[in-house]
Amino acid sequence: MRMTRPLEQAVAAIVCTFQEYAGRCGDKYKICQSELKELLQKELPTWTPTEFRECDYNKFMSVLDTNKDCEVDFGEYPPCPQ
Question: What span, in angstroms and rounded, lies between the C-alpha atoms of 75 and 54?
């Protein structure tokens, strides 16, 4: 039996967490802004300052939402510079 590598475990945790929050507002493969806000607040509390304002979440969402459909899926990440 093969041991799961730490990176595999980390990716699985990210995917499972995404899936846990996705779909509450509609499409189960995408996260809307309220789902993203809840995910950040609950799953990354030390990374999300308590003084985050709604406009901060709006700005964060606008960076991730490259196709501007008000939802984020795994395909919407900024391309890596080459």
Answer: 24
Record the pTM. 0.75
- Backbone phi and psi for residue 72, each to the nearest 5 degrees, phi listed first: -125, 130
Closest by CA to 33, choosing from 53, 58, 10, 15, is 58
Task: Check residue 57 and report its DSSP letter.
Answer: H
- What confidence score (pLDDT) does residue 23 get? 85
* Alpha carbon distances (Å) from 74 to 1, 14, 59, 64: 30, 11, 18, 10
Q: Tell the burial category of 56 from Cβ atoms under 10 Å away from its Cβ (0-12, 13-18, 19+).
A: middle
